[in-house]
Protein: Adenylyl-sulfate kinase
Amino acid sequence: MPSTTGFTLWLTGMHGTGKSTIAAYIAARLRQVGRQVETLDEGEIGQDLWQGLGDSKEERSTIVRRVGYVAQLLARNNVAVLVPCVSPYKSVREENRRIIGRYVEVYVDCPTETLIERDSTGKYKKALSGEIPNFIGITEPYEPPTSPEVTIHSDTESVEDGAAKIFQALLDLGYMTSEELKIITGKKMKANPQPKKARRVEPKADKPGKGTKSRPATRAARVAKPTSAKKGAKRK
Ligand SMILES: Nc1ncnc2c1ncn2[C@@H]1O[C@H](COP(=O)(O)OS(=O)(=O)O)[C@@H](OP(=O)(O)O)[C@H]1O
Ligand SMILES: Nc1ncnc2c1ncn2[C@@H]1O[C@H](COP(=O)(O)OP(=O)(O)O)[C@@H](O)[C@H]1O
Structure:
């Protein structure tokens, strides 16, 4: 038996890609099998954890480190921690991976054009008009992960498809059991032998293994052009 049953499922991707939606879907199913679950949603915890911090690269990095710190505390106490957080910088995500240990990175990808069309919060419209300056993916780059445990293309995959990939990864990594997943999915799922990312979740094993290929930056890494943009605004 592992000494902890906690883990951190870190969902990174641009605003509106579906991180919170997928996290809510997973959280409900984890609770169904008696797991203790906490969701650290960037949009909800900001008032408490980083009020007053702005949108510079340094400040954003501080925010992601703080969320990582809380995730680590919870995960080591057997909590399944879900973190839907834009977390645009690769180096800070990798720092968190090392610190947190039982860490699963989910890259939620979606073409910027689709995000602009979806724009369920109106933030892209504001970013493109320059009303929100320093917007990740519009005026500031988003750095996609090169070797996430899971990649979800939310423009072509449903929430259920994305969740199925996540559950398979949790099984492969030994963070969930096939009994739990039978209850959740109604199917007998098998762990893939020698999961290719298993080494990467241990604190000392963050270097890419032999044969690990870097993926080129995807569409999400591109930065769209706003009509005008001001620098240096504070996050809401
Ligand atoms: N400048 C900038 N660039 C990119 N993304 C940004 C920016 N400001 C806010 N956001 C994202 O919008 C989501 C909610 O932000 P807020 O903290 O302002 O919350 S709220 O609007 O008051 O609910 C949250 O994203 P999601 O977690 O993806 O929903 C924030 O990361
Ligand atoms: N395949 C999908 N996965 C997740 N969300 C999707 C998908 N297709 C459409 N959506 C929609 O996109 C929006 C994503 O919003 P949200 O989950 O808050 O994104 P984020 O947390 O990444 O900012 C929601 O309105 C959701 O219903």
Residues 13, 15-22, 84, 118, 120, 154, 157-159, 162 surround adenosine-5'-diphosphate (ligand 2) (CB under 6 Å). The chain has a mean pLDDT of 86. The chain has one domain: 7-221.
